[in-house]
Amino acid sequence: MKRKRYSSEFKAQIVLEILKEEKSLIELSSEHGIHTNQLRQWKAQFIEQMPQLFTKQNKKQEKMQADYEKQIENLYAEVGRLTTQLSWLKKKSGIHYD
């Protein structure tokens, strides 16, 4: 007999139904054809991993911020190099703009 596989979206939907507590586990089990122990396991897994969801999100934001700051730093460095080159070219060519 082949094991049934459920998508993560489906599991999330079922766990949300469990958390709403509008129906009992037995009702949801019967309605979806999934054993109550499996439903308990999905709920426990969700609750256990929920804090990590926010940690991952914060890490993504921190990485984006660091990347942005590095890009700004690189742009300022490039502006500095170009300004120096422009000054050197003006000096060598004898052109003075003020």
Automatic annotation (TrEMBL):
Q: Which residues form the signal peptide?
A: none
* Name of the protein in its database record: Transposase-like protein
Q: Which domain of life is it from?
A: Bacteria
Annotated coiled-coil segments of the chain: 58-85
Which Pfam families would you find in this protein's record? HTH_Tnp_1 (PF01527)
- Asked if the keyword Hydrolase belongs to this entry, the reply reads no
Instruction: List UniProt keywords, sorted A-Z.
Output: Coiled coil
**InterPro entries, per this entry?**
Homeodomain-like_sf, Transposase_8, WH-like_DNA-bd_sf
Which species does this protein come from? Scopulibacillus daqui
